[in-house]
């Protein structure tokens, strides 16, 4: 390598920084908890809860409780063995202090502490300590109660024996997340916490998971003896199952505990969740590979055995046998190999063999012993196979059409000139009128416009073959360039911002929901990659002379009016201006809201225009308010909980009316601005 001439550098040993103790965690928190946003704040709770769950899986704890305090502190309690407090032979400190202040110190690396645990890396509770400006740990064991406090990863004094002659055992961890670390306010989502605890209760049969919110006075407890079978039943509560109860097996094989439950429904989509040692593996892993291989093989073997599939006929594929499937896979093993601290994917090769063997054997027996249920499953998969073949032909037609037309749609898609997907965005716009304004007002360099006529097909009620016969859906698929179904490829997407832009009324909300259903069901990778957005056009334009303001909510409108009035009456107090503004006789006010606004506007001298449709704006206004990157408001679509999202889409967009009616009844009071 050629030597580069530079000025003399003082770079030396003093420039090499050695981070000790828990300093690496505070320096790079994202490496340990994923992010310093909302998810990271909740990750602190999960790390402590997982320790209690590990005690329960080991057979020592029956209760794990989470308490949210009014001062945003959190307490997690379990009745397990309690963290040891005696002096550790290596560190010469209390074992409690060693565990709380040292990375990779715990009972999960061998030594007989745990046979099975979710905390593989031994960094959980010490990371929580490092990222908290206050922590207190209380341990009950051997008839004594011990206590120690910490701040930002460092002990504040030695372990103290608080009292003696105490009964029972367990650990109480209380902490307050350090606001210096996190990018958001320290505020926990109650719904997120109870959903997580409920999930853990399903995965740990017999354990009681409790949650208490001191701010609201709410308290809940979850306890399921049915394990993951009860989990599947809950997921399918608003769906029509092909058989009941779900198939279930719980058996140990080669040191791996395999627990699986599955049930088919009349839906078209698969819901599958996999766990290893109660840790969700969002990206699957060897247990999922083993399960899917056994499922496809077992159903093909059974169909051939009973003569439903004859020699020479095309075998069922993995996609065929997964249509309408709801399955939960839970494995427990001594030495799990995860990818990264977030444990998104399981890598143990022996798990694939164990799952494939246990599930394959027991599911084959189930089909033999339940012939009517087996026939319903096979008929469902055969319909899926026919639809797959029809969809392949329809998809090929869509692809050929796109290729012949150069991936453009004359009269519909107004493409951008840039070909770099990371710089490009496409607005999916409701109607030709809004589409015309958007085309005129856009920046042609990087903004494409795709107007859709009317409402697209509700894909929740249709298979892929029927969906591909819908012209609006075909236009959307060709415009995005990813393909669909078996040939979907996220790397071929032509825009890294796919923006849904609809009117601020009931029809606009319906179209937006239909589009979200389409993306969630058939192109979820676009959501996972963070490419899908919803545009927020303004609700009002406020105008007084040369002062023109666009506002996006009723609250913002009220604040803007107050500011505009205050500017008008600089010599008067705001209270005087407001009093003068509302001096109007009852006779002048009409009973209708629109007339009230008109009377209000006339008196105040502020013109207020409510925009229901995008087509009501001219091109310049649409650009200024909704399309200009400097001013616009975009909401990125995310899937925080896939199963919960699946349940909502199935409830609101599916065929079953009763669950949808109940959902509307339960949430009706929370609706705002449904239509004005």
Can you walk me through this structure?
With 676 residues, this protein is of the alpha+beta class. It has 3 domains: 23-222, 2-Layer Sandwich (Heat Shock Protein 90); 228-386, Ribosomal Protein S5, domain 2 (2-Layer Sandwich); 405-537 and 635-670, Rossmann fold (3-Layer(aba) Sandwich), CATH 3.40.50.670. The protein is 38% helix and 18% strand. It is built from 22 helices and 22 strands. The strands form 4 sheets. Strands 1, 2, 3, 4, 5, 6, 7, 8 and 9 form a 9-stranded mixed sheet that branches. It has a 5-stranded mixed sheet with strand order 10-11-14-12-13, sandwiched between helices. The chain starts with 22 loop residues before the first helix and ends in a 9-residue tail after the last helix. The model is unreliable at 1-8, 11-19, 107-112, 403-408 and 581-603 (pLDDT under 50).
Query: What kind of sheet is the major sheet?
Result: 9 strands, mixed
- What is the overall number of helices? 22
Uncertain stretches: 1-8, 11-19, 107-112, 403-408, 581-603
Mean pLDDT: 82
Counting structural domains, the number is 3
Q: How many β-strand runs?
A: 22
CATH topology of the largest domain: Heat Shock Protein 90
Please report which band the strand proportion falls in: under 5%, 5-15%, 15-25%, 25-35%, 35-45% or over 45%.
15-25%
| Helical fraction | 25-40%
Q: Assign the CATH class of the largest domain.
A: Alpha Beta
Which structural category do the helix and sheet elements fall into?
A: alpha+beta
Rg over CA atoms: 30 Å
Q: CATH superfamily of the largest domain, please? A: Histidine kinase-like ATPase, C-terminal domain
Distance between the termini: 70 Å
Bulk shape = flat
Task: Label the CATH architecture of the largest domain.
Answer: 2-Layer Sandwich
């Amino acid at each position: 390598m050629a030597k580069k001439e530079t000025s003399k550098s003082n770079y030396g040993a003093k420039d090499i920084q050695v981070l000790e103790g828990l300093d690496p965690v505070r320096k790079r928190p994202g490496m340990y908890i994923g992010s310093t946003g909302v998810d990271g704040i909740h990750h602190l709770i999960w790390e402590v809860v997982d320790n209690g769950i590990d005690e329960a899986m080991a057979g020592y704890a029956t209760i794990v409780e989470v308490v949210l305090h009014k001062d945003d502190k959190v307490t997690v309690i379990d009745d397990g063995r309690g963290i040891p407090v005696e002096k550790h032979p290596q560190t010469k400190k209390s074992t409690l202090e060693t565990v709380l202040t040292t990375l990779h110190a715990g009972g999960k690396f061998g030594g007989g502490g745990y046979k099975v645990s979710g905390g593989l890396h031994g960094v959980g509770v010490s990371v929580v300590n490092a990222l908290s400006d206050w922590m207190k740990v209380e341990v009950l064991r051997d008839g004594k109660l011990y206590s120690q406090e910490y701040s930002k990863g460092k002990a504040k004094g030695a372990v103290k024996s608080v009292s003696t002659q105490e009964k029972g055992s367990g650990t109480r961890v209380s902490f307050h997340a350090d606001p210096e670390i996190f990018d958001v306010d320290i505020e926990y989502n109650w719904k997120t916490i109870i959903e997580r605890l409920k999930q853990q209760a399903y995965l740990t049969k017999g354990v009681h998971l409790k949650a208490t919110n001191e701010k609201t006075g709410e308290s809940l407890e979850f306890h399921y003896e049915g394990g993951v079978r009860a989990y599947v039943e809950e997921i399918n509560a608003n769906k029509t199952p092909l058989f009941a109860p779900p198939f279930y097996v719980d058996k140990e094989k080669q040191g791996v505990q395999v627990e699986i439950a599955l049930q088919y429904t009349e839906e078209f989509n698969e819901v599958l969740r996999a766990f290893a040692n109660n840790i969700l593996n969002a990206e699957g892993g060897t247990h999922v590979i083993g399960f899917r291989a056994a499922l496809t093989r077992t159903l093909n073997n059974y169909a051939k055995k009973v003569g439903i599939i004859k020699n020479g006929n095309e075998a069922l594929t993995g996609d065929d046998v997964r249509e309408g499937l709801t399955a939960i896979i839970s494995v427990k093993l001594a030495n799990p190999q995860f990818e990264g601290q977030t444990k998104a994917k399981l890598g143990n090769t022996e798990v694939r063999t164990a799952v494939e063997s246990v599930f394959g054997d027991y599911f084959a027996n189930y089909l033999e012993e339940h012939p009517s249920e087996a026939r319903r499953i096979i008929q469902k998969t055969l319909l899926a196979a026919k639809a797959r073949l029809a969809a392949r032909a329809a998809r090929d037609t869509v692809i050929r059409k796109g290729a012949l037309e150069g991936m453009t749609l004359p009269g519909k898609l107004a493409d951008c000139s840039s070909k770099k997907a990371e710089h490009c965005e496409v607005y999916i716009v409701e109607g030709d009128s809004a589409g015309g304004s958007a085309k005129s007002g856009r920046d042609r360099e990087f903004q494409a416009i795709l107007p859709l006529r009317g409402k697209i097909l509700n894909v929740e009620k249709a298979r892929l073959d029927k969906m591909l016969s819908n012209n609006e859906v075909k236009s959307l698929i060709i415009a995005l360039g990813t393909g669909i179904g078996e040939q979907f490829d996220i790397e071929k997407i032509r825009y890294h911002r796919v923006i849904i832009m609809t009117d601020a009324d009931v029809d606009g909300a319906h179209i937006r929901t239909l589009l979200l259903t389409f993306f969630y069901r058939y192109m979820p990778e676009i959501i996972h990659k963070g490419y899908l957005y919803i545009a927020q056009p303004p609700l009002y334009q406020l105008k007084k002379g040369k002062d023109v303001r666009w506002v996006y909510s009723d609250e913002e409108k009220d604040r803007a009016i107050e500011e505009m009035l205050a500017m008008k009456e600089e010599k008067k107090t705001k209270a005087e201006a407001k009093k003068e503004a509302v001096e109007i006789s009852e006779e002048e006010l009409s009973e209708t809201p629109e007339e009230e606004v008109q009377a209000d506007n006339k008196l105040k001298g502020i013109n207020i225009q409510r925009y229901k449709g995008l087509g009501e704006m001219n091109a310049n206004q649409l650009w200024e308010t909704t399309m200009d990157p400097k001013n616009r408001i975009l909401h990125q679509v995310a899937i925080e909980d896939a199963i919960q999202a699946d349940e909502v889409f199935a409830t609101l967009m599916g065929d079953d009316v009763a669950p949808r009616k109940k959902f509307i009844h339960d949430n009706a009071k929370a609706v705002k601005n449904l239509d004005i």
